[in-house]
Amino acid sequence: MRIRRLLVANRGEIAARVVRTCSRLGIESVLAASDADLDSLPARLADRVVRLGPAPAAQSYLDPAAVVRAARSVGADAVHPGYGFLSENPALARACADAGIVFVGPTVESLQAVGDKLTARSHAVAAGLPVVPGGEAGDLASARAVAAEVGYPLLVKAVGGGGGRGMKLVRSAGELPRTLDLAVSEAAAAFGDPRVYLERYVASGRHVEVQVLGDGTRAVALGDRDCSVQRRYQKLFEEAPAPLLPAGVHAEMAAAALALATHLRYRGLGTVELLYDRERRTSYFLEMNARIQVEHPVTEMVTGLDLVAEQLAVAEGLPLRIRQEDVVVTGHAVECRVNAEDWAHDFRPSPGRIDRVVLPVGDGIRVDTHVQGGSVVPPHYDSLLAKLVVHGRDRADALARARAALDLLRIDGVTTTVPVHRALLDDPEFAAGGVDTAFFERFLRTRHPDLVEVS
Amino acid sequence: MDLTPDDVRDVLRVLDSSGLDELHLELADLTLTVRREGATGWTAEQQVLRRPVVESGAAVAAEPERPRAAVPEGMVAVHPPLVGTFYRAPQPGAPPFVEVGDGVGEDTVVGIVETMKMMTPVHAGVRGTVVEVRAGNGELTGTDAVLLVVDPARDATGPVEGSR
User: Fold this and answer.
1) Do the chains contact at A362 and B12, CB–CB below 8 Å?
2) The dihedral formed by the CA atoms of B15, B17, B21 and B23, expressed in degrees to the nearest 10
3) Same-domain check for residues A260 and A342
């Protein structure tokens, strides 16, 4: 079915991003906005705006019934959920299907298959992917059996957790009973799901991921990304392709991602997240994200594709327009996430009114943002203001150009993380490439101890 | 509609060959200023003027402006450290951090403020006894909102609970 009117059920920079592709493709865009966002930049860019609900996300962006109501009221034939909020929620996909509206995302079955960590892990195993050694721990006896195989140290992970929540380190066999008990009761309280599983603890790992696109029959891998620069499991900087991997690893990771997408008969845009063990020089499946990702522009820069356009095409039921042999990765792209946070005060959030926005422009430079002079950044949602995306001939060129572009970028009125990116781009270890996920916190502690608040 | 990044790059190419350092465009729906920065850099400052076309029936509920509420003479108001959603308890269903009549110290945590998905503890900032809880659980509070009122004259006797 041809999409003529698309409801964008999200906010912030991704809403503006989806609206932009709609206007390029001649699709009418209707933004579903909460009361806090009715006069936002995405609302001004969209063809029309429909009220979704009150400012708190639970009553607007997180309410599947409100989204379907909004879509019906404007006669939208499809809903784009963006990322976060309801993007991976089977309830919205199902409600859209029941209402005869296209959900721009995978099937309910795929969302369920990858939404639960243990189910996702078993699908990955079935598809032949390497997973971090480990397994489910229903009770102490089975936990001891799994631990005997993977060895110590190991991690106890809540099935319902994620984003660093619900994870505990066990250093030795003596700690296992107590930590397991604690993990189960905390998981039940925090996630409403007491299930936990054990995994080998990878001392130095990198977060790498493969972009995939499927039409339900066929899938293509669109290169990889490295997102290892993180603070408390929140990504700050991403790049494509993942730098300094041994020969063959890019191809291995792409093959693994394709095997999973094919096994799931995946339709839509998705990301297969992998943990690259720097010591063992091998990668393991972590999870699959069944949506467009914040960092998708680095892939767009190096492949020349518009991933939202491809996502809409497969949602319309069209077969893939890209053959694997057509996917060529050119140069290197990096993305700096500019957040409304005060990094000198423990990354404290800084909502408020934006006075002025000046952005770098030029070949190979792209800024995805949802703010301009006069915009209000509400306290209800995340702190992402803008993504500076820079494409270079190679990694060194991309980093140098990003450094120059950062100096030209001004977002006045709130405190932003621009200074942290300047310091990061000046750091020799980071410039060398291939840092692990522990790098950034170490960088803050050792190179910039003055900027880490004692807490 | 706004100008696409491709449009802006087209403007840049024209400017680059013209030797001009700055161009200011005013269209019905937007203004754009492109400036040369140093030898090779360019910046753009764009303002989309178009008003959102909001479907009828959509009432814009403006956040009510709350005047800085007064507290009785001698009492101390506890304000949130930053704008956000105030929570009285560490998690849903858990008992509140403090109730009326509880003793507090400067460092006693009396609530949590959620701002941009990040949690910040609210400290009493004063030693005394809670005499009033004004902000409701889940209420959006500005930095001048009164969360609770503490009577510093009624110092809690003995060790203050929750001091950390």
Assistant:
1) yes
2) -20
3) yes
